[in-house]
């Protein structure tokens, strides 16, 4: 209600646009750098001049804590749980329908998705930019993806470097899969790793390692690290992946558990061991100079996020809405995708110090397919046309 003695004035669109345009670009940039991603998007949609300034300058937004991607109510949308704003956004995504895709990787704010008819895409869910990747059928031992045991065949993908805003760049997509799910006597001739770059027409299968299938991979200090199912660590040169691992660290540890690699804030490499049928974690710090694992019960400022396809760490100090010395997890039973398609997923927050478990806050009733995945949202838009604000962010 207007204050006594004052009459509310209506502002015409042309006047509002003129007032927006009068704000110096440098001042607008200072404001944008203080805003989180949702407010960054809202500001860009105030008027055309601000939208243009955001696109041309591509200011970085204030880092936002990770989002949890959940199934949307419609086939073409997904929900994203934001801890910083304590709410869920519904964001429409480009075709093919996101409800018919499985996300097998989350890296640098981009998702690697697999459509049920074999197509693969690199997708930024915030900007809507999507890049076609080679089809699964271009792997040398896959003729018909429909005949593959799909829920068990593909389980993880990662990016060697951050893509540009338009999805271009010199990065490599590294794919982990299970050739033995083809039920073919010749699967032993192939590695469970393949690579491709944007623009490639097919996947390139990497040489098979001598110790067994790779369970997880992560770029670390300019190299690619991978741990196999037996707990042996392999190291590749980023620029010579097709030559095979350049070194192998013979460290076998907790062979019967799920293994996930994650880089800490100070550049240390951790291996997260998770029980296959119960949610308990072991945080193991790897000393690459002295090949041994060092169990940790204090992650310091690190907050670790893991699921079957993703693992990364963020700062508890920078994001006070998160619990410090904790591991945020979602169910990692990728081998039970079909059986769990219509059942609730196990999700929670594991306290490394005391071993306790608590639910993820603000996670209300939800659908169960496709499986959830963590993502660090990014929004660099200098190559994108005029931005339309998703209704969920209005």
- Would you tell me the structural class of the helices and strands? mainly beta
Number of helices: 5
Q: Which residues form runs of ≥5 with pLDDT under 50? A: 1-13, 381-394
Oligomer: single chain
Q: Could you spell the SSE succession in H and E letters?
A: HHHHEEEEEEEHEEEEEEEEEEEEEEEEEE
Main sheet overview = 5 strands, mixed
CATH architecture of the largest domain: 6 Propeller
CATH class of the largest domain: Mainly Beta
Distance between the termini: 22 Å
What is the gist of this entry?
This protein has 394 residues and is mainly beta. 10% of the residues lie in helices and 32% in strands. The chain has helices at 13-21, 25-32, 37-44, 48-57, 150-153; strands at residues 67-71, 77-82, 87-92, 101-107, 110-115, 120-123, 130-133, 154-159, 173-177, 193-196, 204-205, 214-220, 223-228, 233-237, 247-249, 258-263, 269-274, 281-287, 292-296, 302-306, 311-315, 326-330, 347-351, 357-358, 373-375.
3D structure, described in words:
By secondary structure, this protein is mostly beta strands. It folds into two domains: 11-61 and 381-394, no CATH class; 62-378, TolB, C-terminal domain (Neuraminidase, 6 Propeller), CATH 2.120.10. 10% of the residues lie in helices and 32% in strands. It is built from five helices and 25 strands. The chain has helices at 13-21, 25-32, 37-44, 48-57, 150-153, and strands at residues 67-71, 77-82, 87-92, 101-107, 110-115, 120-123, 130-133, 154-159, 173-177, 193-196, 204-205, 214-220, 223-228, 233-237, 247-249, 258-263, 269-274, 281-287, 292-296, 302-306, 311-315, 326-330, 347-351, 357-358, 373-375. The strands form six sheets. A five-stranded mixed beta sheet has the order 21-20-22-23-24, with no helix packed on it. A hairpin with a 5-residue loop joins strand 16 and strand 17. Helix 2 crosses helix 4. The protein is globular and about 65 Å long. Residues 1-13 and 381-394 have low confidence and may be disordered.
């Amino acid at each position: 209600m207007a204050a006594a003695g004052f009459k509310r004035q209506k502002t015409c669109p042309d006047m509002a646009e003129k007032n927006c345009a009068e704000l110096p670009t440098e001042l607008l940039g200072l404001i944008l750098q203080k805003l989180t991603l949702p407010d960054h998007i809202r500001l860009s949609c105030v008027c055309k001049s601000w939208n243009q300034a955001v696109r041309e300058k591509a200011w970085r937004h204030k880092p936002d804590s990770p989002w949890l991607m959940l199934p949307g109510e419609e086939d073409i949308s997904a929900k994203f749980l934001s801890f910083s704003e304590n709410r869920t956004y519904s964001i429409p995504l480009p075709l093919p329908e996101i409800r018919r895709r499985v996300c097998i990787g989350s890296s640098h704010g981009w998702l690697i998705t697999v459509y049920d008819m074999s197509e693969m895409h690199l997708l930024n869910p915030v900007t809507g930019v999507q890049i076609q990747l080679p089809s699964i059928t271009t792997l040398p031992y896959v003729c018909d993806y429909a005949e593959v045991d799909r829920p068990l065949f593909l389980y993880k993908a990662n990016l060697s470097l951050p893509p540009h805003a338009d999805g271009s760049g010199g990065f490599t997509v590294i794919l982990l899969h299970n050739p033995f799910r083809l039920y073919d006597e010749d699967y032993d001739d192939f590695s469970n790793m393949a690579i491709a770059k944007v623009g490639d027409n097919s996947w390139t299968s990497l040489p098979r390692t001598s110790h067994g299938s790779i369970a997880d991979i992560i770029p670390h200090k300019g190299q690619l690290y991978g741990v196999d199912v037996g707990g042996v660590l392999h190291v590749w040169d980023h620029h010579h992946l097709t030559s095979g691992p350049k070194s192998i660290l013979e460290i076998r540890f907790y062979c019967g558990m799920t293994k996930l690699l994650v880089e800490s804030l100070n550049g240390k490499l951790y291996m997260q061991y998770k029980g296959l049928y119960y949610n308990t974690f072991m945080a193991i710090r790897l000393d690459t100079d002295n090949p041994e694992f060092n169990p940790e019960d204090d992650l310091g400022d690190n907050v670790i996020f893991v699921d079957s396809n993703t693992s990364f760490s963020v700062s508890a100090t920078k994001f006070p809405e998160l619990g410090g010395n904790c591991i945020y997890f979602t169910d990692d039973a990728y081998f039970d995708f079909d059986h769990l398609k219509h059942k609730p997923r196990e999700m929670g927050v594991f306290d490394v110090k005391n071993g306790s478990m608590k639910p993820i806050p603000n996670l209300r009733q939800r659908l169960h397919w496709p499986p959830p995945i963590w993502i660090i949202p990014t929004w660099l838009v200098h190559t994108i046309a005029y931005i339309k604000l998703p209704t969920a962010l209005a």
